[in-house]
Amino acid sequence: MADVSLRNLTKAWGGFTAVRDQSLEIRDGEFMVLLGPSGCGKTTTMRMIAGLEEPTAGDILIGGQRVNDLPPRDRDIAMVFQSYGLYPHMTVEDNIGYPLKLRGIKGAERAAQVRAAAAKVELEPLLHRRPKELSGGQRQRVALARAIVRRPTVFLMDEPLSNLDAKLRVSTRAEIKHLQHELGVTTVYVTHDQIEAMTLAHRVAVMQGGEIRQLDTPEVIYDRPADLFVAGFIGSPPMNLVDGDHADGRFTAAGGFHATTGVARHGGRAVLGVRPEDVTVGPAGSGDLDASIYAVELTGDAVLVTVQAGAARIIAKADRAWRAEIGSTVALRLDASRLHLFDAASTKRLQPE
Amino acid sequence: MNGTRATAARRRKLVMKGLESAILLLALFLILFPIVWMALTAFKRPVDLFELTLLFTPTLDNFRTIFAAPWNIGAALWNSTVVAGLTVLISIPCSTLAAYAFSRFEMRFKGALFFTILATQFIPAVVVVLPFYLLFRDLGLLDTHLALVIVNLAIVTPFAVWMLKGFLDAVPTESEEAALVDGATRLRVILDIVVPMVWPGVLVTAVFCFILTWNEFLFALILTRDNAVTLPVGITRFRTERGDLWELIAAAGILISIPMFLLSSVIQRHFVRGMTGGAVK
Fold first, then answer.
1. Best mutation site among A48, A81, A101 for testing chain B: the one with the most B CBs within 10 Å?
2. What's the predicted TM-score (pTM) here?
3. What interface predicted TM-score (ipTM) does this complex get?
Protein backbone atom coordinates (compact mmCIF):
# COMPACT_ATOMS: atom_id res chain seq x y z
CA MET A 1 0.00 0.00 0.00
CA ALA A 2 1.29 3.40 -0.89
CA ASP A 3 0.34 6.79 -2.20
CA VAL A 4 1.51 7.93 -5.60
CA SER A 5 2.37 11.49 -6.44
CA LEU A 6 3.17 13.05 -9.76
CA ARG A 7 4.95 16.37 -9.58
CA ASN A 8 5.08 18.63 -12.65
CA LEU A 9 5.32 15.59 -14.87
CA THR A 10 5.99 16.25 -18.56
CA LYS A 11 6.54 13.88 -21.46
CA ALA A 12 7.46 15.14 -24.91
CA TRP A 13 8.57 13.40 -28.06
CA GLY A 14 10.33 15.86 -30.31
CA GLY A 15 7.85 18.67 -30.79
CA PHE A 16 4.85 16.79 -29.44
CA THR A 17 3.96 17.11 -25.78
CA ALA A 18 1.84 14.18 -24.60
CA VAL A 19 1.72 15.14 -20.94
CA ARG A 20 2.16 18.72 -19.83
CA ASP A 21 3.34 19.79 -16.38
CA GLN A 22 0.99 17.45 -14.61
CA SER A 23 0.68 17.14 -10.85
CA LEU A 24 -1.53 14.60 -9.15
CA GLU A 25 -1.70 13.17 -5.64
CA ILE A 26 -3.16 9.67 -5.47
CA ARG A 27 -3.99 8.63 -1.94
CA ASP A 28 -3.16 5.31 -0.33
CA GLY A 29 -5.86 2.79 -1.24
CA GLU A 30 -7.57 5.14 -3.65
CA PHE A 31 -9.15 4.10 -6.94
CA MET A 32 -8.05 6.84 -9.33
CA VAL A 33 -9.39 6.87 -12.87
CA LEU A 34 -7.64 8.82 -15.60
CA LEU A 35 -10.39 9.62 -18.09
CA GLY A 36 -10.12 11.25 -21.47
CA PRO A 37 -10.38 10.84 -25.23
CA SER A 38 -7.61 9.02 -27.10
CA GLY A 39 -4.43 11.05 -27.29
CA CYS A 40 -5.10 12.99 -24.09
CA GLY A 41 -1.97 11.61 -22.37
CA LYS A 42 -3.67 9.28 -19.91
CA THR A 43 -1.89 6.11 -21.04
CA THR A 44 1.44 7.94 -21.25
CA THR A 45 0.95 9.11 -17.66
CA MET A 46 0.31 5.54 -16.54
CA ARG A 47 3.30 4.19 -18.48
CA MET A 48 5.50 6.74 -16.73
CA ILE A 49 4.23 5.54 -13.34
CA ALA A 50 5.02 1.98 -14.45
CA GLY A 51 8.50 2.93 -15.59
CA LEU A 52 7.87 1.89 -19.18
CA GLU A 53 8.25 5.49 -20.30
CA GLU A 54 10.80 7.99 -19.04
CA PRO A 55 9.48 11.44 -18.04
CA THR A 56 10.99 14.40 -19.87
CA ALA A 57 10.64 16.47 -16.70
CA GLY A 58 9.11 16.17 -13.25
CA ASP A 59 9.09 13.54 -10.51
CA ILE A 60 7.16 10.38 -9.72
CA LEU A 61 6.93 9.28 -6.10
CA ILE A 62 5.55 5.98 -4.86
CA GLY A 63 5.17 5.73 -1.10
CA GLY A 64 7.16 8.93 -0.74
CA GLN A 65 10.15 7.52 -2.60
CA ARG A 66 11.26 9.07 -5.89
CA VAL A 67 11.17 6.28 -8.46
CA ASN A 68 12.14 8.13 -11.65
CA ASP A 69 15.37 6.20 -11.97
CA LEU A 70 14.05 2.81 -10.87
CA PRO A 71 13.31 0.15 -13.51
CA PRO A 72 9.72 -1.21 -13.52
CA ARG A 73 10.70 -4.32 -11.54
CA ASP A 74 11.86 -2.25 -8.55
CA ARG A 75 8.70 -0.13 -8.29
CA ASP A 76 6.55 -2.87 -6.73
CA ILE A 77 3.65 -2.33 -9.08
CA ALA A 78 1.44 -4.64 -11.10
CA MET A 79 -0.10 -3.75 -14.41
CA VAL A 80 -3.00 -5.03 -16.49
CA PHE A 81 -2.65 -4.25 -20.17
CA GLN A 82 -5.28 -3.41 -22.73
CA SER A 83 -4.43 -6.47 -24.84
CA TYR A 84 -3.63 -8.51 -21.71
CA GLY A 85 0.10 -9.01 -22.42
CA LEU A 86 -0.01 -12.70 -21.49
CA TYR A 87 2.86 -15.09 -22.12
CA PRO A 88 1.56 -17.25 -24.97
CA HIS A 89 3.99 -20.14 -24.47
CA MET A 90 3.12 -20.61 -20.80
CA THR A 91 0.09 -22.21 -19.20
CA VAL A 92 -2.35 -20.11 -17.18
CA GLU A 93 -0.68 -21.40 -14.02
CA ASP A 94 2.78 -20.35 -15.22
CA ASN A 95 1.45 -17.00 -16.41
CA ILE A 96 0.04 -16.21 -12.99
CA GLY A 97 3.08 -17.66 -11.22
CA TYR A 98 5.66 -15.77 -13.27
CA PRO A 99 5.93 -12.75 -10.93
CA LEU A 100 6.43 -15.19 -8.03
CA LYS A 101 9.00 -17.20 -9.96
CA LEU A 102 11.00 -14.02 -10.56
CA ARG A 103 10.99 -13.42 -6.79
CA GLY A 104 12.34 -16.89 -6.10
CA ILE A 105 9.15 -18.30 -4.60
CA LYS A 106 9.25 -22.00 -5.35
CA GLY A 107 7.23 -25.19 -5.49
CA ALA A 108 4.28 -25.71 -3.18
CA GLU A 109 4.22 -22.15 -1.87
CA ARG A 110 4.07 -20.74 -5.38
CA ALA A 111 1.39 -23.21 -6.43
CA ALA A 112 -0.71 -22.28 -3.38
CA GLN A 113 -0.47 -18.54 -4.05
CA VAL A 114 -1.28 -19.07 -7.73
CA ARG A 115 -4.34 -21.11 -6.80
CA ALA A 116 -5.49 -18.45 -4.33
CA ALA A 117 -5.20 -15.73 -6.96
CA ALA A 118 -6.91 -17.91 -9.58
CA ALA A 119 -9.74 -18.61 -7.14
CA LYS A 120 -10.37 -14.88 -6.70
CA VAL A 121 -11.12 -14.56 -10.41
CA GLU A 122 -12.65 -18.04 -10.84
CA LEU A 123 -9.93 -19.46 -13.04
CA GLU A 124 -9.06 -22.67 -11.17
CA PRO A 125 -10.44 -25.09 -13.77
CA LEU A 126 -8.35 -23.48 -16.51
CA LEU A 127 -4.92 -23.50 -14.87
CA HIS A 128 -3.43 -25.94 -17.35
CA ARG A 129 -4.64 -24.25 -20.50
CA ARG A 130 -2.65 -21.89 -22.66
CA PRO A 131 -3.79 -18.33 -23.43
CA LYS A 132 -4.82 -19.18 -26.99
CA GLU A 133 -7.29 -21.74 -25.65
CA LEU A 134 -9.11 -19.09 -23.59
CA SER A 135 -11.86 -16.60 -24.42
CA GLY A 136 -11.23 -12.87 -24.20
CA GLY A 137 -12.85 -12.60 -20.78
CA GLN A 138 -10.84 -15.52 -19.44
CA ARG A 139 -7.61 -14.01 -20.75
CA GLN A 140 -8.47 -10.76 -19.03
CA ARG A 141 -8.99 -12.66 -15.77
CA VAL A 142 -5.57 -14.33 -16.17
CA ALA A 143 -4.07 -10.85 -16.49
CA LEU A 144 -5.95 -9.79 -13.34
CA ALA A 145 -4.83 -12.86 -11.41
CA ARG A 146 -1.22 -12.24 -12.46
CA ALA A 147 -1.54 -8.70 -11.11
CA ILE A 148 -2.95 -9.70 -7.73
CA VAL A 149 -0.89 -12.85 -7.14
CA ARG A 150 1.76 -10.91 -5.27
CA ARG A 151 0.48 -7.97 -3.26
CA PRO A 152 1.88 -4.97 -5.11
CA THR A 153 1.71 -1.47 -3.63
CA VAL A 154 0.05 -0.08 -6.76
CA PHE A 155 -2.20 -1.52 -9.46
CA LEU A 156 -2.07 0.02 -12.90
CA MET A 157 -4.83 -0.85 -15.35
CA ASP A 158 -4.71 0.35 -18.93
CA GLU A 159 -8.20 0.12 -20.49
CA PRO A 160 -8.56 -3.45 -19.22
CA LEU A 161 -12.15 -3.82 -20.39
CA SER A 162 -11.94 -2.35 -23.87
CA ASN A 163 -11.46 -5.68 -25.64
CA LEU A 164 -14.42 -7.37 -23.97
CA ASP A 165 -17.96 -7.47 -25.27
CA ALA A 166 -20.57 -5.23 -23.65
CA LYS A 167 -22.08 -7.83 -21.32
CA LEU A 168 -18.74 -9.15 -20.10
CA ARG A 169 -17.55 -5.60 -19.60
CA VAL A 170 -20.28 -4.93 -17.05
CA SER A 171 -19.60 -8.08 -15.02
CA THR A 172 -15.80 -7.71 -15.16
CA ARG A 173 -16.16 -4.06 -14.13
CA ALA A 174 -17.96 -5.18 -10.99
CA GLU A 175 -15.28 -7.82 -10.35
CA ILE A 176 -12.53 -5.22 -10.60
CA LYS A 177 -14.36 -2.92 -8.23
CA HIS A 178 -14.91 -5.74 -5.75
CA LEU A 179 -11.28 -6.88 -5.96
CA GLN A 180 -9.94 -3.39 -5.40
CA HIS A 181 -12.23 -2.90 -2.43
CA GLU A 182 -11.24 -6.25 -0.96
CA LEU A 183 -7.48 -5.79 -1.46
CA GLY A 184 -7.43 -2.06 -0.71
CA VAL A 185 -4.56 -1.50 -3.11
CA THR A 186 -3.95 1.95 -4.58
CA THR A 187 -5.18 1.70 -8.17
CA VAL A 188 -4.67 3.86 -11.23
CA TYR A 189 -7.10 3.01 -13.99
CA VAL A 190 -7.01 4.46 -17.50
CA THR A 191 -10.13 4.57 -19.66
CA HIS A 192 -11.93 6.62 -22.30
CA ASP A 193 -15.27 5.22 -21.12
CA GLN A 194 -17.04 7.68 -18.82
CA ILE A 195 -19.35 4.98 -17.43
CA GLU A 196 -16.32 2.97 -16.26
CA ALA A 197 -14.90 6.12 -14.70
CA MET A 198 -18.15 7.01 -12.94
CA THR A 199 -18.76 3.51 -11.61
CA LEU A 200 -15.25 2.58 -10.51
CA ALA A 201 -13.51 5.70 -9.29
CA HIS A 202 -13.10 7.24 -5.90
CA ARG A 203 -11.81 10.21 -7.84
CA VAL A 204 -11.63 10.92 -11.56
CA ALA A 205 -9.01 12.97 -13.35
CA VAL A 206 -10.53 14.16 -16.62
CA MET A 207 -7.72 14.78 -19.09
CA GLN A 208 -7.46 16.56 -22.40
CA GLY A 209 -4.45 17.64 -24.43
CA GLY A 210 -1.99 16.35 -21.85
CA GLU A 211 -3.54 18.30 -18.99
CA ILE A 212 -5.95 17.48 -16.19
CA ARG A 213 -9.13 19.49 -16.73
CA GLN A 214 -10.85 18.47 -13.53
CA LEU A 215 -9.95 16.24 -10.61
CA ASP A 216 -12.73 15.28 -8.25
CA THR A 217 -15.20 12.63 -7.17
CA PRO A 218 -17.56 11.26 -9.86
CA GLU A 219 -20.49 13.08 -8.19
CA VAL A 220 -18.84 16.50 -8.35
CA ILE A 221 -17.59 15.94 -11.88
CA TYR A 222 -21.11 15.05 -12.95
CA ASP A 223 -22.92 17.75 -10.99
CA ARG A 224 -20.43 20.60 -11.31
CA PRO A 225 -18.25 20.15 -14.40
CA ALA A 226 -15.38 22.64 -14.28
CA ASP A 227 -15.44 23.55 -17.95
CA LEU A 228 -17.15 22.93 -21.26
CA PHE A 229 -14.92 19.97 -22.14
CA VAL A 230 -15.74 18.07 -18.96
CA ALA A 231 -19.42 19.02 -19.30
CA GLY A 232 -19.60 17.60 -22.81
CA PHE A 233 -17.46 14.52 -22.13
CA ILE A 234 -19.25 13.17 -19.07
CA GLY A 235 -22.82 11.92 -19.37
CA SER A 236 -24.74 9.82 -21.86
CA PRO A 237 -26.59 11.24 -23.71
CA PRO A 238 -24.29 14.26 -23.32
CA MET A 239 -25.25 17.51 -21.63
CA ASN A 240 -27.22 19.95 -23.79
CA LEU A 241 -25.05 22.98 -24.52
CA VAL A 242 -26.65 26.14 -25.91
CA ASP A 243 -24.68 29.19 -27.14
CA GLY A 244 -26.14 32.58 -26.24
CA ASP A 245 -25.81 35.78 -24.27
CA HIS A 246 -25.92 36.28 -20.53
CA ALA A 247 -26.75 39.41 -18.62
CA ASP A 248 -28.20 40.12 -15.16
CA GLY A 249 -28.78 36.47 -14.33
CA ARG A 250 -30.72 35.83 -17.51
CA PHE A 251 -29.54 33.67 -20.42
CA THR A 252 -30.97 34.18 -23.91
CA ALA A 253 -30.24 32.43 -27.18
CA ALA A 254 -31.32 32.92 -30.79
CA GLY A 255 -34.91 31.86 -31.49
CA GLY A 256 -36.38 32.75 -28.12
CA PHE A 257 -34.57 30.25 -25.86
CA HIS A 258 -34.14 31.71 -22.38
CA ALA A 259 -33.43 30.68 -18.82
CA THR A 260 -32.75 32.17 -15.40
CA THR A 261 -29.28 31.26 -14.17
CA GLY A 262 -28.72 32.79 -10.77
CA VAL A 263 -25.28 34.00 -11.82
CA ALA A 264 -25.39 37.75 -11.22
CA ARG A 265 -21.87 38.90 -11.82
CA HIS A 266 -21.38 37.76 -15.39
CA GLY A 267 -22.31 39.43 -18.65
CA GLY A 268 -21.48 38.58 -22.27
CA ARG A 269 -21.24 35.49 -24.46
CA ALA A 270 -21.98 32.31 -22.54
CA VAL A 271 -22.92 28.66 -22.92
CA LEU A 272 -25.80 27.19 -20.97
CA GLY A 273 -25.65 23.52 -20.10
CA VAL A 274 -28.44 21.28 -18.91
CA ARG A 275 -28.46 17.49 -18.64
CA PRO A 276 -31.25 15.60 -20.44
CA GLU A 277 -32.60 14.24 -17.15
CA ASP A 278 -32.95 17.80 -15.83
CA VAL A 279 -35.25 18.79 -18.68
CA THR A 280 -38.95 17.92 -18.33
CA VAL A 281 -41.36 17.86 -21.26
CA GLY A 282 -45.03 18.66 -20.73
CA PRO A 283 -48.10 19.93 -22.56
CA ALA A 284 -47.56 23.13 -24.58
CA GLY A 285 -47.73 26.33 -22.52
CA SER A 286 -47.07 24.63 -19.18
CA GLY A 287 -43.30 25.20 -18.94
CA ASP A 288 -40.48 27.69 -19.37
CA LEU A 289 -40.67 27.71 -23.18
CA ASP A 290 -42.40 25.90 -26.00
CA ALA A 291 -40.58 23.90 -28.66
CA SER A 292 -41.42 21.48 -31.44
CA ILE A 293 -40.46 17.84 -31.33
CA TYR A 294 -37.60 16.91 -33.68
CA ALA A 295 -37.25 13.21 -32.80
CA VAL A 296 -38.43 10.68 -30.25
CA GLU A 297 -36.21 7.70 -29.37
CA LEU A 298 -37.17 4.88 -27.05
CA THR A 299 -34.10 3.42 -25.35
CA GLY A 300 -35.99 0.91 -23.21
CA ASP A 301 -35.55 2.46 -19.79
CA ALA A 302 -36.44 5.96 -21.00
CA VAL A 303 -37.59 8.03 -23.96
CA LEU A 304 -35.15 10.54 -25.40
CA VAL A 305 -37.01 13.52 -26.81
CA THR A 306 -35.09 15.87 -29.09
CA VAL A 307 -36.78 19.25 -29.44
CA GLN A 308 -35.98 22.25 -31.58
CA ALA A 309 -35.89 25.27 -29.25
CA GLY A 310 -35.00 28.24 -31.39
CA ALA A 311 -31.67 27.51 -33.06
CA ALA A 312 -30.75 24.89 -30.49
CA ARG A 313 -31.62 21.22 -30.32
CA ILE A 314 -32.21 19.97 -26.82
CA ILE A 315 -32.48 16.41 -25.65
CA ALA A 316 -34.81 15.65 -22.77
CA LYS A 317 -35.09 12.35 -20.94
CA ALA A 318 -38.74 11.47 -20.41
CA ASP A 319 -40.49 8.55 -18.76
CA ARG A 320 -40.43 5.39 -20.83
CA ALA A 321 -44.24 5.53 -21.21
CA TRP A 322 -44.12 9.04 -22.67
CA ARG A 323 -45.31 9.33 -26.33
CA ALA A 324 -45.70 12.21 -28.79
CA GLU A 325 -45.76 12.86 -32.52
CA ILE A 326 -42.79 14.38 -34.30
CA GLY A 327 -43.56 17.99 -35.15
CA SER A 328 -46.01 18.59 -32.32
CA THR A 329 -45.36 21.33 -29.78
CA VAL A 330 -44.39 20.63 -26.18
CA ALA A 331 -43.29 22.73 -23.23
CA LEU A 332 -39.80 22.42 -21.70
CA ARG A 333 -39.13 22.97 -18.04
CA LEU A 334 -35.48 23.28 -17.05
CA ASP A 335 -34.54 22.40 -13.47
CA ALA A 336 -33.21 25.78 -12.37
CA SER A 337 -31.07 24.28 -9.59
CA ARG A 338 -29.28 22.06 -12.12
CA LEU A 339 -28.36 24.56 -14.81
CA HIS A 340 -24.71 24.98 -15.72
CA LEU A 341 -23.35 28.25 -17.08
CA PHE A 342 -19.99 28.53 -18.80
CA ASP A 343 -18.14 31.59 -20.02
CA ALA A 344 -17.88 31.30 -23.82
CA ALA A 345 -14.34 32.68 -24.03
CA SER A 346 -12.62 30.89 -21.14
CA THR A 347 -14.97 27.80 -21.29
CA LYS A 348 -14.84 27.86 -17.46
CA ARG A 349 -17.82 27.19 -15.25
CA LEU A 350 -19.60 30.20 -13.73
CA GLN A 351 -20.79 29.33 -10.26
CA PRO A 352 -24.14 30.73 -9.05
CA GLU A 353 -23.84 32.85 -5.89
CA MET B 1 -20.30 -16.27 -83.49
CA ASN B 2 -20.32 -15.99 -79.78
CA GLY B 3 -19.70 -19.73 -79.46
CA THR B 4 -16.59 -19.71 -81.66
CA ARG B 5 -15.14 -16.85 -79.68
CA ALA B 6 -15.72 -18.77 -76.48
CA THR B 7 -14.05 -21.86 -77.95
CA ALA B 8 -11.09 -19.78 -79.11
CA ALA B 9 -10.71 -18.29 -75.64
CA ARG B 10 -10.86 -21.72 -74.11
CA ARG B 11 -8.28 -23.04 -76.57
CA ARG B 12 -5.96 -20.12 -75.83
CA LYS B 13 -6.31 -20.82 -72.11
CA LEU B 14 -5.46 -24.48 -72.69
CA VAL B 15 -2.38 -23.59 -74.75
CA MET B 16 -1.20 -21.20 -72.03
CA LYS B 17 -1.69 -23.87 -69.40
CA GLY B 18 0.28 -26.36 -71.48
CA LEU B 19 3.08 -23.84 -71.99
CA GLU B 20 3.15 -23.14 -68.27
CA SER B 21 3.51 -26.82 -67.45
CA ALA B 22 6.22 -27.24 -70.05
CA ILE B 23 8.28 -24.38 -68.61
CA LEU B 24 7.81 -25.72 -65.09
CA LEU B 25 8.92 -29.19 -66.15
CA LEU B 26 11.97 -27.75 -67.89
CA ALA B 27 12.92 -25.77 -64.77
CA LEU B 28 12.38 -28.83 -62.60
CA PHE B 29 14.56 -30.90 -64.92
CA LEU B 30 17.35 -28.32 -64.86
CA ILE B 31 17.29 -28.21 -61.07
CA LEU B 32 16.89 -31.89 -60.38
CA PHE B 33 19.10 -33.37 -63.10
CA PRO B 34 22.45 -32.67 -61.40
CA ILE B 35 21.09 -33.98 -58.10
CA VAL B 36 19.73 -37.15 -59.65
CA TRP B 37 22.93 -37.60 -61.62
CA MET B 38 24.94 -37.18 -58.41
CA ALA B 39 22.74 -39.57 -56.48
CA LEU B 40 23.05 -42.25 -59.19
CA THR B 41 26.77 -41.75 -59.67
CA ALA B 42 27.46 -42.12 -55.97
CA PHE B 43 26.26 -45.71 -56.09
CA LYS B 44 27.97 -46.71 -59.37
CA ARG B 45 31.13 -48.70 -59.84
CA PRO B 46 33.81 -46.81 -61.81
CA VAL B 47 33.19 -49.08 -64.81
CA ASP B 48 29.52 -48.04 -64.96
CA LEU B 49 30.31 -44.34 -64.66
CA PHE B 50 29.84 -43.28 -68.22
CA GLU B 51 27.04 -45.73 -69.02
CA LEU B 52 23.83 -43.75 -69.35
CA THR B 53 21.80 -46.69 -68.14
CA LEU B 54 19.61 -46.61 -65.06
CA LEU B 55 20.12 -50.36 -64.63
CA PHE B 56 23.37 -50.96 -62.82
CA THR B 57 24.42 -52.89 -59.75
CA PRO B 58 24.43 -50.35 -56.90
CA THR B 59 27.35 -50.41 -54.52
CA LEU B 60 28.39 -48.67 -51.29
CA ASP B 61 32.07 -49.03 -52.20
CA ASN B 62 32.40 -45.33 -52.99
CA PHE B 63 31.36 -44.38 -49.47
CA ARG B 64 33.76 -46.91 -47.99
CA THR B 65 36.53 -45.52 -50.18
CA ILE B 66 36.09 -41.87 -49.25
CA PHE B 67 36.07 -42.66 -45.52
CA ALA B 68 39.24 -44.74 -45.83
CA ALA B 69 42.84 -43.62 -46.32
CA PRO B 70 44.07 -41.74 -48.21
CA TRP B 71 40.89 -39.69 -48.56
CA ASN B 72 39.68 -39.69 -44.92
CA ILE B 73 36.61 -37.65 -45.72
CA GLY B 74 35.46 -38.31 -42.12
CA ALA B 75 37.95 -35.69 -40.94
CA ALA B 76 36.51 -33.10 -43.32
CA LEU B 77 33.00 -34.04 -42.19
CA TRP B 78 34.06 -33.48 -38.58
CA ASN B 79 35.74 -30.15 -39.45
CA SER B 80 32.64 -28.94 -41.28
CA THR B 81 30.41 -29.96 -38.39
CA VAL B 82 32.60 -28.26 -35.79
CA VAL B 83 32.98 -25.05 -37.80
CA ALA B 84 29.32 -24.76 -38.77
CA GLY B 85 28.12 -25.83 -35.30
CA LEU B 86 30.34 -23.39 -33.41
CA THR B 87 29.51 -20.57 -35.81
CA VAL B 88 25.78 -21.05 -35.25
CA LEU B 89 26.17 -21.47 -31.48
CA ILE B 90 28.07 -18.20 -31.18
CA SER B 91 26.27 -16.24 -33.86
CA ILE B 92 22.65 -16.85 -32.88
CA PRO B 93 22.81 -15.59 -29.27
CA CYS B 94 24.88 -12.55 -30.33
CA SER B 95 22.59 -11.78 -33.27
CA THR B 96 19.48 -12.20 -31.14
CA LEU B 97 20.71 -9.62 -28.63
CA ALA B 98 21.80 -7.25 -31.40
CA ALA B 99 18.54 -7.65 -33.31
CA TYR B 100 16.57 -7.11 -30.09
CA ALA B 101 18.42 -3.85 -29.44
CA PHE B 102 17.77 -2.68 -32.99
CA SER B 103 14.14 -3.70 -32.78
CA ARG B 104 13.25 -2.23 -29.38
CA PHE B 105 15.59 0.57 -28.39
CA GLU B 106 15.97 4.07 -29.72
CA MET B 107 19.57 5.13 -30.26
CA ARG B 108 21.55 7.67 -32.20
CA PHE B 109 22.41 6.80 -35.80
CA LYS B 110 20.32 3.63 -35.53
CA GLY B 111 19.43 3.55 -39.22
CA ALA B 112 22.99 4.15 -40.37
CA LEU B 113 24.37 1.61 -37.93
CA PHE B 114 21.90 -1.02 -39.00
CA PHE B 115 22.64 -0.41 -42.66
CA THR B 116 26.39 -0.61 -42.02
CA ILE B 117 25.97 -4.09 -40.57
CA LEU B 118 24.63 -5.39 -43.84
CA ALA B 119 26.89 -3.16 -45.90
CA THR B 120 29.87 -5.17 -44.68
CA GLN B 121 28.52 -7.94 -46.87
CA PHE B 122 28.65 -5.82 -50.01
CA ILE B 123 32.43 -6.33 -50.18
CA PRO B 124 33.26 -9.30 -52.43
CA ALA B 125 34.90 -12.16 -50.55
CA VAL B 126 37.84 -12.34 -52.99
CA VAL B 127 38.79 -8.79 -52.04
CA VAL B 128 39.25 -9.62 -48.36
CA VAL B 129 40.40 -13.21 -48.54
CA LEU B 130 44.06 -12.28 -48.94
CA PRO B 131 44.13 -9.76 -46.05
CA PHE B 132 42.44 -12.43 -43.96
CA TYR B 133 45.12 -14.93 -45.00
CA LEU B 134 47.89 -12.57 -43.95
CA LEU B 135 46.10 -11.75 -40.71
CA PHE B 136 45.63 -15.36 -39.69
CA ARG B 137 49.17 -16.24 -40.79
CA ASP B 138 50.57 -13.58 -38.46
CA LEU B 139 48.30 -14.76 -35.67
CA GLY B 140 49.38 -18.34 -36.27
CA LEU B 141 45.80 -19.42 -36.85
CA LEU B 142 46.10 -20.75 -40.40
CA ASP B 143 44.57 -24.18 -40.87
CA THR B 144 42.60 -24.03 -37.59
CA HIS B 145 38.91 -24.34 -36.76
CA LEU B 146 39.09 -21.05 -34.94
CA ALA B 147 40.10 -19.10 -38.05
CA LEU B 148 37.18 -20.54 -40.02
CA VAL B 149 34.72 -19.89 -37.19
CA ILE B 150 35.86 -16.25 -36.97
CA VAL B 151 35.58 -15.73 -40.73
CA ASN B 152 32.18 -17.42 -40.91
CA LEU B 153 30.89 -15.39 -37.97
CA ALA B 154 31.77 -12.27 -39.91
CA ILE B 155 29.80 -13.56 -42.88
CA VAL B 156 26.80 -15.00 -41.08
CA THR B 157 26.12 -12.62 -38.18
CA PRO B 158 25.02 -9.60 -40.27
CA PHE B 159 22.47 -11.75 -42.08
CA ALA B 160 21.27 -13.26 -38.82
CA VAL B 161 20.80 -9.81 -37.25
CA TRP B 162 18.73 -8.69 -40.23
CA MET B 163 16.59 -11.81 -40.28
CA LEU B 164 16.01 -11.85 -36.52
CA LYS B 165 15.11 -8.17 -36.43
CA GLY B 166 12.39 -8.92 -38.95
CA PHE B 167 10.98 -11.67 -36.73
CA LEU B 168 11.28 -9.56 -33.57
CA ASP B 169 9.56 -6.55 -35.14
CA ALA B 170 6.50 -8.74 -35.72
CA VAL B 171 6.16 -9.63 -32.01
CA PRO B 172 3.91 -7.30 -29.97
CA THR B 173 5.71 -5.66 -27.07
CA GLU B 174 2.93 -5.89 -24.51
CA SER B 175 4.00 -9.28 -23.16
CA GLU B 176 7.54 -7.98 -22.72
CA GLU B 177 6.32 -4.93 -20.85
CA ALA B 178 4.15 -7.14 -18.68
CA ALA B 179 7.23 -9.19 -17.81
CA LEU B 180 9.25 -6.05 -17.01
CA VAL B 181 6.51 -4.91 -14.62
CA ASP B 182 6.21 -8.42 -13.20
CA GLY B 183 9.79 -8.10 -12.05
CA ALA B 184 12.01 -9.38 -14.84
CA THR B 185 15.30 -7.83 -15.93
CA ARG B 186 15.73 -7.08 -19.64
CA LEU B 187 17.83 -10.23 -20.07
CA ARG B 188 15.21 -12.38 -18.34
CA VAL B 189 12.56 -10.87 -20.59
CA ILE B 190 14.57 -11.86 -23.65
CA LEU B 191 15.22 -15.40 -22.40
CA ASP B 192 11.82 -16.13 -20.82
CA ILE B 193 9.44 -14.25 -23.09
CA VAL B 194 10.98 -13.02 -26.35
CA VAL B 195 12.97 -16.05 -27.45
CA PRO B 196 10.11 -18.53 -26.89
CA MET B 197 7.81 -16.24 -28.86
CA VAL B 198 10.17 -15.93 -31.84
CA TRP B 199 11.50 -19.46 -31.54
CA PRO B 200 10.49 -20.46 -35.10
CA GLY B 201 12.32 -17.41 -36.41
CA VAL B 202 15.41 -18.21 -34.37
CA LEU B 203 15.35 -21.76 -35.70
CA VAL B 204 15.00 -20.65 -39.31
CA THR B 205 17.85 -18.18 -38.86
CA ALA B 206 20.04 -20.83 -37.24
CA VAL B 207 19.45 -23.22 -40.12
CA PHE B 208 20.15 -20.47 -42.61
CA CYS B 209 23.45 -19.67 -40.88
CA PHE B 210 24.36 -23.35 -40.68
CA ILE B 211 23.79 -23.79 -44.42
CA LEU B 212 25.82 -20.67 -45.29
CA THR B 213 28.73 -21.88 -43.19
CA TRP B 214 28.43 -25.50 -44.29
CA ASN B 215 28.67 -24.49 -47.97
CA GLU B 216 31.35 -21.83 -47.56
CA PHE B 217 34.18 -22.61 -49.96
CA LEU B 218 36.54 -19.73 -50.75
CA PHE B 219 37.79 -18.92 -47.24
CA ALA B 220 38.05 -22.59 -46.34
CA LEU B 221 40.13 -23.20 -49.47
CA ILE B 222 42.59 -20.37 -48.75
CA LEU B 223 42.81 -20.62 -44.96
CA THR B 224 43.18 -24.40 -44.55
CA ARG B 225 45.71 -26.95 -45.65
CA ASP B 226 45.43 -30.28 -43.79
CA ASN B 227 43.95 -30.06 -40.30
CA ALA B 228 40.87 -27.90 -40.78
CA VAL B 229 39.82 -28.82 -44.32
CA THR B 230 36.02 -28.73 -44.67
CA LEU B 231 33.81 -30.86 -46.90
CA PRO B 232 33.50 -28.47 -49.88
CA VAL B 233 37.28 -28.14 -49.98
CA GLY B 234 37.71 -31.85 -49.32
CA ILE B 235 35.76 -32.63 -52.47
CA THR B 236 38.31 -30.82 -54.62
CA ARG B 237 40.88 -33.41 -53.55
CA PHE B 238 39.15 -35.95 -55.78
CA ARG B 239 40.48 -34.12 -58.81
CA THR B 240 43.75 -36.03 -59.07
CA GLU B 241 46.47 -36.53 -61.63
CA ARG B 242 44.64 -39.79 -62.45
CA GLY B 243 41.70 -37.60 -63.52
CA ASP B 244 38.42 -36.62 -61.83
CA LEU B 245 37.12 -39.43 -59.61
CA TRP B 246 33.45 -38.70 -60.33
CA GLU B 247 32.05 -41.57 -58.28
CA LEU B 248 33.88 -40.32 -55.16
CA ILE B 249 32.93 -36.70 -55.82
CA ALA B 250 29.29 -37.78 -56.05
CA ALA B 251 29.48 -39.82 -52.84
CA ALA B 252 30.99 -36.85 -50.97
CA GLY B 253 28.36 -34.62 -52.58
CA ILE B 254 25.64 -36.83 -51.07
CA LEU B 255 27.36 -36.48 -47.70
CA ILE B 256 27.29 -32.69 -47.97
CA SER B 257 23.66 -32.61 -49.06
CA ILE B 258 22.15 -34.85 -46.38
CA PRO B 259 22.19 -32.25 -43.56
CA MET B 260 20.69 -29.70 -45.96
CA PHE B 261 17.75 -31.98 -46.70
CA LEU B 262 17.22 -32.77 -43.03
CA LEU B 263 17.42 -29.14 -41.94
CA SER B 264 15.10 -27.86 -44.63
CA SER B 265 12.47 -30.34 -43.54
CA VAL B 266 12.87 -29.15 -39.94
CA ILE B 267 12.45 -25.52 -41.01
CA GLN B 268 9.35 -26.34 -42.99
CA ARG B 269 7.64 -27.89 -40.01
CA HIS B 270 8.46 -24.99 -37.67
CA PHE B 271 7.99 -22.21 -40.16
CA VAL B 272 4.27 -22.63 -40.48
CA ARG B 273 3.58 -22.89 -36.77
CA GLY B 274 2.90 -19.49 -35.26
CA MET B 275 3.84 -19.16 -31.61
CA THR B 276 2.32 -15.80 -30.79
CA GLY B 277 -1.29 -17.02 -30.84
CA GLY B 278 -3.21 -15.88 -27.78
CA ALA B 279 -0.60 -13.47 -26.50
CA VAL B 280 -2.62 -10.35 -27.07
CA LYS B 281 -6.30 -9.80 -27.76
1. A81
2. 0.81
3. 0.85
